[in-house]
């Protein structure tokens, strides 16, 4: 069974599909279906998850997807422009995905998953759409993926920020360049 994180859409593997390949966070709960970082349900037995994007469907009839373009009406600015998650309440400050109060500036960023509704300022990670921090907003604070990594500081295998003189991945310990035959 394929299990994907609804936050970064990356297939889970390692240890019986309980660790995300992007953020390498152990899933919690006995059924290993909840991510510790974003607390997103990964799959459902009641067929309420969209087969296309693996996102929990909205409304009782399970005909509206909160993440993809199945949602037909969102002119009232209650749909997130990034993940298209329906916001609750009239002030549109509660995320239906994680039920966390939105804050930061004009209430467009979730405190829990840090998904920004508008990201034309290039501060959102291209991989998992998480608000970037560190080094002038170039590295994701969740999965530590650098927005632009032509400086060869990201592992080519798992795309994780490198340590140890920026030559060896701290996750999989694969050397970025191994022409010296040390790996």
In short:
The chain has 183 residues and is mainly β. It has one helix at residues 134-138; strands at 12-13, 19-20, 57-58, 64-65, 87-88, 94-95, 102-103, 109-110, 132-133, 139-140, 162-163, 168-169. It folds into four domains: 1-43, no CATH class; 58-113, no CATH class; 118-147, no CATH class; 149-183, no CATH class.
Please explain how this structure is put together.
By secondary structure, the chain is mainly β. The chain has 4 domains: 1-43, no CATH class; 58-113, no CATH class; 118-147, no CATH class; 149-183, no CATH class. Helices cover 3% and strands 13% of the residues. The chain contains 1 helix and 12 strands, in the order βββββββββαβββ. The protein has a two-stranded antiparallel ribbon with strand order 1-2. β7 (102-103) and β8 form a beta hairpin. The protein starts with 11 loop residues before the first strand and ends in a 14-residue tail after the last strand. 30% of the residues are buried.
Radius of gyration: 18 Å
Spatial shape: globular
Q: Tally of extended strands?
A: 12
Mean pLDDT: 43
The domain tally reads 4
Relative strand content: 5-15%
What is the number of helical segments per DSSP (H or I, 4+ residues)? 1
Going across the biggest sheet, name each strand in turn: 1-2
Low-confidence segments, given as residue ranges, are 1-122, 141-152, 173-183
Helix-strand topology string:
EEEEEEEEEHEEE
Largest sheet: 2 strands, antiparallel
Please bin the fraction of helical residues. Answer: under 10%
Class derived from helix and strand content? mainly beta
Distance between the termini: 33 Å
